[in-house]
Amino acid sequence: MVNTGKMKKWSIYILGVALFFSPIIYPNILYLDIGIHAGIYFIVAMGLTILLGYAGQISMSQAAFFGIGAYTSGLLSSKWGMNFWIAGPLGVIFAGSIGYVVGLTSVRLRHGYLAMATIAFQIIFNTLVFEWVELTGGPAGLGGIPVPSLLGMFKIDTEIKYFYFVWVIALVVFLFSRNLVSQRIGRVLVSLRENEMGANSIGINVARYKLKVFTLSAIYAGIGGVLFAHYSRFVSPPSFSFHFSFTFLVMVIIGGMGNIWGAFFGSVFITLLPELLRFLSSFPLLPLALRNVLINYTYNLIFYGLLVYLFIVFLPKGIHGFGGTFLTKR
């Protein structure tokens, strides 16, 4: 009889070792860049997984909170010369604070109404960063964002250094999230998702918990935004558009909404997808028109929409439910 507990442990160890040594064994800049972005998106997707997968609250404005963290830290460090370890936390706090304010106005909304409210905030954010040229740089963006450094001496200024930096933070956030959802609050959030009226009837303050989890998801997005800004060293409105809010939602749905591991599978898969499509576009047997579509990044939303449809219909539990359960089930 197969010992699933040992399989789970060894599979996680192997995955962790492979992730840790992959930049050293194969230090390809392209793959390091993909790994860095996957780690950043993983953090944002974890926040959305807790919000949507556990609490059942949808948000279409995660890219806005992602951008708030990025712009705040970028502005404080590039224009006012603040150290990353001050500017970064301030960016996260500001993103969480705005999330709290937005949450105050929307915690009593549900389903489609909540989605529309968060879309409205996403539009407001994009308009502000696009039009407020004096502060954000407008369409031209904001550059000159410095790289992080440790103790003012060790600069995290290469892809391989930033890869480890991002994934250490992602691991800390992951462990915190796993601990959070395994405690009483995790069960409370699931009760909100399953039956808000029932949860309210047994004394759970539904509005308070919805506000807390909405704020927490904004904090996660802010962390991702700060890491993104100091890695790219440049931010502009297209990086935080509605397209990215939808992309984060796709990561959660495809990865599997009911488990934090789903955020990992979804973020890695969606980050790799453009490269996979580019690889497929090199097949000479495919029609030229199809190859042009595969290589054109602007058509990614079509593939995302198709994937969401296929997963909802045929694999509602996502990648985690299909092939990752043996890694993570208790």
Please write out the topology.
Elements: H1 4-25, H2 29-54, H3 62-78, H4 84-106, H5 111-131, H6 133-136, E1 149-150, E2 154-155, H7 159-182, H8 184-194, H9 196-201, H10 206-232, H11 242-255, H12 260-280, H13 288-295, H14 300-314, H15 318-328
Antiparallel strand pairs: 1-2
Helix pairs in contact: 2-7, 2-8, 2-10, 2-11, 2-12, 3-4, 3-5, 3-10, 4-10, 11-12, 11-14, 11-15, 12-15
**Could you list the spans in which at least 5 consecutive residues all have pLDDT below 50?**
none
Largest sheet, described in full?
2 strands, antiparallel
User: DSSP helix count?
Assistant: 15
- What's the rounded overall pLDDT mean? 85
Strand content: under 5%
Listing every helix as H and every strand as E from the N terminus to the C terminus, the arrangement reads HHHHHHEEHHHHHHHHH
**Helix content range:** over 70%
Please give the number of β-strands: 2
Radius of gyration, taken over Cα atoms and rounded to an integer in Å: 20 Å
Find the structural class using helix and strand composition.
Answer: mainly alpha
Question: Order of strands across the widest beta sheet?
Answer: 1-2
Head-to-tail CA distance between termini: 17 Å
Shape: globular
